[in-house]
Amino acid sequence: MTEAGQYISDDERRQVIDGLLAAQARVSPKYFYDLAGSRLFDVITLLDEYYPTVTERGILQRHAADVAAAFRSAAGDCALLVEPGAGSCEKVRFLLPVLRPAQYLALDVSVEFVEQALESLRRDFPQVPMKAQAADIAQAAPWPVPEVEGARLFFYPGSSIGNFTPDEAQALLARIHAQCLGQGGLLIGVDLVKDTAVLHAAYNDALGVTAAFNLNLLRHLNRLIGSDFRAEQWEHHAFYNEPASRIEMHLRAREALTVRWPCPAGGTSTLASERHFAAGDTLHTENSYKYTQADFEALLRRAGFAQVQRWTDARDYFGVFLATA
Ligand SMILES: C[S@@+](CC[C@H](N)C(=O)[O-])C[C@H]1O[C@@H](n2cnc3c(N)ncnc32)[C@H](O)[C@@H]1O
Questions:
Q1: Cβ neighbours of residue 212 under 8 Å, at least 6 residues apart?
Q2: Which of 72, 151, 163, 174 has a CA between 20 and 30 Å from the CA of residue 250?
């Protein structure tokens, strides 16, 4: 156990170490989110440069009633609202009064943080039974979603879908489509392609909060796998990879260094237990793909959704898509 509620299995430990040993060292962005990482992300959402949260909130605030009406006419009353990667559960506040789901389930790897968020959500919406559940939605295993009679709506805001490659995203959307069981849908927020300077600023804020969020991953890894990363030897590096249509976030070694960790599973593994980084080498921590509206709609259709409606902001910075099964 590493922090309240967090465990790592031997398999997961091996996956992390495989990533550290890859030619381009990499780590899953889910490891940003220990309790400190979840709180740092919340601060990012308050920054002037970080347009996604404020823009998506604006769209939901303006159109929540239209979304609820569109969902009701396509699928009926909402028996279950499921939010994967729920985090602070802030955006669901726009939906609860108009959608009036019979129950709400928040899924997240950082479940302690979500439990705290639910305390105030329960006070504000006492009529909606709600629960937080630990789940890694990137795994192929079925999500711990209860059986219900009636329509399910999956709510996946924050453009977290952009952390997956387009092929992985399509597979994840297809898994959500399958879990709609023919009666339900997905409401998803997606960051759209835009001017590179705007994108660059959003991931390189002047206060350095995104840098702290990125570096905090090293502390989290140290607790999870017993590695000896030293944050002061690394720096935040984020840029827009235009051909791939994605922001890439890395940690870059400020100097030549070696990171060590104990052998997994009692030292019987053939995996190495250290990695050397030359000055300037990087550890790739996150991709954040940006889509055009047409490309994202096509992705939803390839994942199996028959009907798609969308809402955007005046600048077309962000899209909220309602896809029904
Ligand atoms: C960028 S934050 C978005 C939070 C919130 N949905 C929003 O829109 O503001 C991503 C959230 O997804 C969670 N998360 C990241 N990877 C995950 C995974 N593989 N499985 C479940 N939750 C994950 C994080 O803990 C975090 O709460």
A1: 40
A2: 174
Distance CA 145, CA 132 (A): 11
- 265 Cβ partners below 8 Å, 6+ apart? 10
CA of 205 relative to ligand 1 center, distance in Å = 20
Question: What digits encode the pLDDT tens for the residues 92-112?
Answer: 999 999 999 999 999 999 999
Residue 270: pLDDT band by 50, 70, 90 thresholds?
confident
Nearest CA, atom 11, ligand 1: 85
Which residue has the least CA distance to atom 15 on ligand 1? 30
> Which ligand 1 atom is the nearest neighbour of the CA of 138?
19
Task: Record the pTM.
Answer: 0.95
Closest Cα to atom 14, ligand 1: which residue? 85
Query: Any residues with CB less than 8 A from the CB of 139 and at least 6 apart, and which?
Result: none
Cα 205 from chain centroid (whole Å): 19
Q: Which atom of ligand 1 is nearest to the CA of 56?
A: 8
